[in-house]
Amino acid sequence: MNDLHSLIQIKGLRDGLLVSLNDAPWAEQQSALLTQMDQQPSFFQGARLALDVGSQILHVNEMVDLRDQLSERNVLLWAVLSESPTTEQTAQLLGLATRISKPRPEETRFASSGLSDETALFINKTLRSGTRVEFPGHVVVLGDVNPGAEIVAVGSIIIWGRLRGAVHAGSNGDGSAKVCALDFAPMQLRVAKEAMNLNEDKEPASPRMAFIRDERLVIESWKPS
Amino acid sequence: MTAQVVTISSGKGGVGKTTAVANIAFALAASGSKVVCIDGDIGLRNLDVVMGLENRIVYDIVDVIEGRCKLRQAMIRDKHLPELYLIPAAQTRDKNAVSPSDMKRVCDEIRPEADFVLIDSPAGIERGFRNAIAPADRVLVITNPEVSAVRDADRVIGILEAEEKHSPALIINRLNPDLVKQHDMLSAEDVLDLLGIKLIGIVPEDESVIVGSNRGVPVSQDPKSRAGQAFRNIAHRLKGEEVPFLDLDKQAGLWDRIQKMAGRR
To answer: For B151, left (φ over 0), alpha (ψ -120 to 50), or beta?
Structure first.
């Protein structure tokens, strides 16, 4: 019993429970969590549960399996918090939140240290509606960004494909950030603090780049320089 | 026999999931396969109505899962096609009466005895949808050539990809070639362009589909109907046969042109 408790930590939050895991193997932690639930079903019944997996990398099937196991116990998994962008992305793809209302101190630590300015997240697929990618560096997508998908990057955003979704480059206010796409037609475009409405934009599909010049957001055709 | 479990899903409601399930099931059964349909829309069932079997329901899928009857007892045999069965949804319960693992268990029990299990998914991306896709070997995403339906289909495909349900295939339903020609409707190419998955069928708009659904005689039974032909073709493609697509007017998509330009450079 004591062993179980040292593997996982459960805290009450305003709007549910927060379960924190440590670095023990995933299978052990999962079974520890489920055992504890089965021992105190009345405590967990109908709960909203957020899971902090720390630095663990969780795969899609593990996350799906856990969610199903929890839902059988009438517990809703609504958020997965992680230090790993891969796991965060997996959670987002499953429609789970990756943040609980209070920003976590670990996140800022992650953003300010450890990463140099030139870190980029490479996404080798199309981002579909409902996907949100947030990254404290640059984001490169080899694929399309469909309407309803969203990218927020502290650095620049490069899309090798069609851009139809919402993008925000330089989200911390970096005016040197750029947004480039082979077919540039975002639904919403923001660079640092500047935003632009492209509804009136009737340009034919072409490679273009958005950046800030003289404190104004401009879009120019994207040519190899 | 090991049945292929095929789920038909869309995200948005009213695009023709139930109609497609009924029509494809009739077409498969008419060509000699043993088919079991499962209505996944617990609380809002209507596959039984479209298949013309509503007055024969005694047990439903929740009865099977909760052990009140045997699987066989809940399988309603079609009036005309002896190899076509329906497991109806419960009307007096809701989606939470069933879990994804329940659905997997039921499908695994049917697998050895059928060629196809077709699951009609409810609209939305919540519990009912999760239940419907959990046991699927294959998912067919159905959409209309409308911006809102395509957006929802895109979301559903994203979820399927995240769940590693490999290669969903696309059905474009209710395409009106005349409206496409006047540029008042998205063309099949526009839809495919955005969604970027494999196409398994284009069903033209056809009034006889509505008439058939109301009478409980799906239109794929009607040899003259164009929509019926399209559904029969989808059934053949599900069986792995190569069938050419119906001749609908083609238009070069914008993206094709860019790719051509990029290729030339």
So the answer is: alpha
The boundaries of every CATH 3.30.70.260 domain in chain A are 1-113
CATH fold of A1-113 reads: Alpha-Beta Plaits (3.30.70)
Beta strand B76-77 pairing with B84-87: antiparallel
Cα dihedral sign for A150, A155, A156, A159?
A: negative
Residues of chain A with CATH 2.160.20.70: 115-225
- Cβ neighbours for B108, distance < 8 A, ≥ 6 positions apart: B135
Domain total in chain B: 1
CB spacing of A72 vs B99 below 8 angstroms:
yes
Minimal Cα–Cα distance from A194 to chain B, Å? 27
Q: Tell me the pLDDT tens digit for each residue of B1-52.
A: 799 999 999 999 999 999 999 999 999 999 999 999 999 999 999 999 999 9
Distance in angstroms (rounded) separating the CA atoms of residues B5 and B78: 19
Cα–Cα distance for residue pair B233/A34, rounded to 1 Å: 47
A52 vs A105: CA distance, rounded Å:
13
At B11 the three-state DSSP class reads coil
CA-based angle B2:B3:B5, to the nearest 5? Answer: 140
Does the distance separating the beta carbons of A125 and B101 come in below 8 Å?
Answer: no
B163: CATH:
3.40.50.300
Is the distance from CB of B132 to CB of B40 less than 8 angstroms?
yes
Q: Is B133 on the interface with A (CB under 8 A)?
A: no
Question: How many whole angstroms separate alpha carbon A173 and alpha carbon B209?
Answer: 55
Quick check: B219 and B239 in contact, CB under 8 A? no
Does B134 lie at the interface with A, CB-CB under 8 angstroms?
yes
Q: How far is CA B205 from the centre of its chain?
A: 16
Alpha carbon of A11: minimum distance to chain B alpha carbons (Å): 26
Mutation for B interface: A77, A146, A150, most B CBs within 10 A: A146
Q: Residue B19's domain spans which residues?
A: 4-264
> What are B232-251's pLDDT values in tens digits?
999 999 999 999 998 765 44
Q: CATH code for A115-225?
A: 2.160.20.70
pLDDT tens-digit profile of B114-166?
A: 999 999 999 999 999 999 999 999 999 999 999 999 999 999 999 998 887 87
